[in-house]
């Protein structure tokens, strides 16, 4: 068998020397041989870092400006004197313009989400229900990932549909709140459904929804009002309520042999 002898004399001198270099020396050798490429990569990396820092600073600055304008707009929106209706309407219109400016100048910022919601509320105050519906739906599409805030927006959307004579769409908006496991306003939604049933003179459905408020949301501020509505709509239902059963149980315990009632002195005589 023949052996092939490598001819080392054909290798370039630089390659022959590179075989005896350490890792550090090889790296320096590579940099020296590819100086233009290396400096180009360094400059590109610095440019990317500068761009990221600049964008971060601009984003932070925009958010601060947006929140500042947001605060000014909310002040105008809330400054509605009760004794001057015209002044109040003017402030609502002015605040609406400021909310629109925030949406146009600072889209995508956290204050833009708040401005969008308050803009729709302002339109509700101006009885521009169709405009409010469009803004609420736009908010849901753009910021609907905030599940807790989403429930409130869907509730307001339902009210806007009701005022715009679209009951079916309103019920769909209310159902969306009830289907949202993160919504914190389900008690009010059930109470509103009870009021709608009562307005339709569907007493059985109204009482059912009012009971649902009491049973599922006993700590809700709407629970006490729901109980009052049940007393008005179905007085016979209150005799079977847990509160009446508790009072009857207390009375029976007081008159039991273990707890005999003490007669009044006048009765004894």
Looking at this protein, list some descriptive labels.
single chain, 269 residues, mainly alpha, 14 helices, disordered C terminus
Write a structural description.
There is one protein chain. Helices cover 76% and strands 0% of the residues. The N and C termini lie far apart (140 Å). It has 14 helices and no strands. The protein has a domain at 185-242. The protein is elongated, with a radius of gyration of 37 Å.
Strand content: under 5%
Which series of helices and strands comes N to C?
HHHHHHHHHHHHHH
Helix content: over 70%
The radius of gyration over CA amounts to 37 Å
Number-wise, the strands total 0
Total of helices: 14
| Molecular shape | elongated
Instruction: Flag low-confidence runs.
Output: 242-269
Distance from first to last alpha carbon: 140 Å
Major β-sheet annotation:
none
Mean of residue pLDDT?
79
Helices and strands: which structural class?
mainly alpha
How are the SSEs ordered, and which strands pair?
Blueprint: H1 13-18, H2 23-33, H3 35-78, H4 85-105, H5 110-125, H6 129-143, H7 147-163, H8 167-178, H9 186-199, H10 203-216, H11 221-233, H12 235-238, H13 242-254, H14 265-268
Summary?
The protein is mainly alpha-helical and 269 residues long. The protein has helices at residues 13-18, 23-33, 35-78, 85-105, 110-125, 129-143, 147-163, 167-178, 186-199, 203-216, 221-233, 235-238, 242-254, 265-268.
């Amino acid at each position: 068998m023949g052996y092939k002898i490598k001819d080392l004399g054909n290798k370039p001198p630089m390659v022959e020397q590179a075989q005896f270099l350490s890792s550090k020396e090889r790296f320096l050798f590579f940099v020296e041989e590819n100086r233009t490429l290396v400096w180009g990569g360094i400059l590109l990396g610095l440019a990317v870092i500068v761009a990221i820092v600049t964008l971060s600073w601009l984003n932070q600055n925009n958010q601060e400006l947006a929140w500042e304008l947001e605060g000014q707009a909310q002040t105008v929106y809330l400054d509605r004197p009760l004794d001057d209706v015209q002044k109040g309407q003017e402030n609502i219109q002015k605040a609406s313009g400021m909310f629109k400016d925030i949406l146009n100048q600072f889209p995508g910022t956290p204050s833009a989400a708040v401005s969008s919601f308050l803009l729709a509320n302002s339109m509700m105050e101006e009885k521009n229900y169709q405009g409010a519906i469009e803004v609420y739906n736009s908010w849901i599409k753009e910021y609907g990932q905030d599940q807790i805030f989403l429930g409130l927006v869907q509730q307001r959307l339902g009210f806007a549909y009701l005022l715009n004579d679209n009951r079916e769409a309103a019920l769909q908006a209310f159902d969306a709140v009830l289907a949202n496991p993160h919504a914190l306003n389900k008690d009010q939604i059930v109470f509103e459904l009870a009021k709608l049933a009562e307005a339709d003179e569907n007493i059985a459905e109204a009482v059912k929804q009012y009971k649902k408020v009491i049973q599922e949301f006993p700590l809700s501020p709407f629970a006490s009002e729901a109980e009052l509505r049940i007393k008005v709509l179905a007085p016979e239902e209150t005799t079977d309520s847990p509160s009446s059963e508790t009072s009857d149980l207390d009375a029976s315990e007081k008159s039991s042999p273990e707890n005999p009632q003490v007669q009044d002195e006048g009765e004894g005589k």
